[in-house]
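Format notes (please read before filing issues)

Several people have asked whether sequences and structure tokens are stored in separate files. They are not. Every record keeps both together, in the order shown below: the sequence lines, then the token lines. Line labels are part of the format and must not be stripped during preprocessing.
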Amino acid sequence: MKRLAPPTDLRPDPAVTTSLRDLGDYVRAAREDRDISQDDLAVAVTPHTSRTAVALLEQARRLPPAATLSAICTHLGIPKRFWEPLLDDSQVKRAMFEETLGELVGRRVSLRDHDHESTSVAHFAVLGLFDTSNTAEQLHRALCAALVNYGAPAPTLSFFKKFLGAEAFTSVEAFADRVRAYQAQAIRLYSSFAAAYDHLGGTEELDDALAPLRVRDAVPFRARTEWQVIEEIPEARLPDLGYISAARVRKEHAERAMVAAFLVELAGKIEKEGASAIETSPAKRRRKIGSLLRSFQSTLPHDLLSPLFAPDPDRLRREAAQIGPKAAEDIEQMESTQATGLRNLARYLAADFMDVYVATSMRSDADFASVNSFVRRLFTHSGVHPLKLRYFNPTQSWIEDRVAKGLVEALMLKRADITIYLAQKADSFGKDSEASVALGQGKPVIVFVPSLRVEEVDIDSEKLGLLGRPGLQQIVEREASGEDREVDETTDDQALLAQVLTLRLQRCTGAALARAARDHWADFDLYGEDARIVAESDRAAYRAWLDGCVTGGNLHGPEAAVQAHFIGILVATATNAEKRATLFREVHPLALQVILSTGVLNGILVVRSIDGCAAILDRLVRNALDLDLDVDDRNYRLVERSTRSTIRVIARHALIGNAFDAFYEAARRR
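Then the structure lines:
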């Protein structure tokens, strides 16, 4: 076919074929070939424009004003035949229609291979669609006729009325808006827009195909009977539910006594002789004690033969108390607690249904306390409790055998409709696997990452973290003094957040710091962070003060030395939590998983508070998430509005789309 030259008279040639997508590709290629950034290009042309305008042009999403388009293409040396026709309104309208039509059907469409007269007929057919005097039925027939020119299958009337309607043809912008709204629904069900259009555009059973997207009424949930069969295990007894059975603890009485005595003796020697006192104990004895410590699930971080083994005396005595033999009444209480856990497990296994599974790792007392507190606060929340959900609380069940425990978890993942993943200081392979399995089944997964909240000094680490560099820098410049107000260009966002948190925590009263310790000790594992304190006496004082805040009801501030350490620990753990939240939202391997049965990419929802988690859980139960479709030059992303979490993705990469069609949609059609 002979390529047509741009028209030279005032009447544009309707047979000219100019694609927005092709023009965007040309602009990007020419810009990159000249090693010019989008920002540099925006300011190099006259009139100046913005980086966003350049990006939208390259993505074929929006044409800049005619003068700007001419300036950009002239600056980059792009031949006029590729862009000059788009200075005409009717050509722009058709080009925008074709780009949007490609978005609708999931494939590029073009009139490039048609002859001159056929292209002219198709051109005016497209323009004729945007006649608001036509009825929906008339517009449907006209659209079906126009699609013949593009080799695209005609949609059913029910599809047309559901997703387009007469309103879509009041303007090409309205058509694009309706197609975007359609994509926001299609991306939830299909691995590509081509597959979505093939199915939804061709079915007469549209209601059945869209059934998974229907909002559910919460009335049936609220009408349930209360599920009050689980026997509540008090928080103080939760550590009884470790893997070790009470019978084993009784059997290990002598060995535990020996280890505890060794640790207490070693603590006394270190106080008198210093850290080198450990060397006075024979290596054989240390090897045996080390083996027993591991079998008793010791929290000491290093082996007794390691040169890194250097705990302070207070830490050794605490470990001795934790590991040492239990009194007869304590063992009886442990047996009673574990029996309760077994009964609860039987109730979970026999439950008629399960709504929510809580995935977590529990290695320390802090883990048990943190998880149980989270579950209790969430499911008694005013936004969740009326739904009367069945939920599996791992802190309220027990079984000794690890294999059996894994089987229970696998069953709960199969049965539960929603999984909640508690992000802790250290996540396990098992917990990550549970989240992946749930995502792979097409089920929603909520990831809870704790945040630091101290109302007295306006600290909410989540909100502060979302301010970004400009907002944090403004706070530093306003609240810091002296040289600290000057923000170096090399200071990153995490360092700025740490500076803001430190500034505000230093203004806290002692009572506010004590409340922060009480409220966050478990979520942030504040006892486990004591290794950050170098001086042994300060470490012991820090632990003693935490004891008072956590279990003694003490709301007095710490001594000056301890206060400085505590603020540093809070800042370090809070900034790490913000980093982890960003990781889960954007780059964690769990962020997106393929639903194995459909090829749809399923993403996690990251929440930072009980209120936020309750709101998301309620919306998931009702199938009523607030969602936005975000489009860039690489992906279509369906984003939950309040958490900004990506829950669905379709790649714009052509080969990836073809591969998903080949390996998922073709199989589904067969």
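For reference, the curators noted about this record: The mean pLDDT is 89. The two ends are 38 Å apart (CA to CA).
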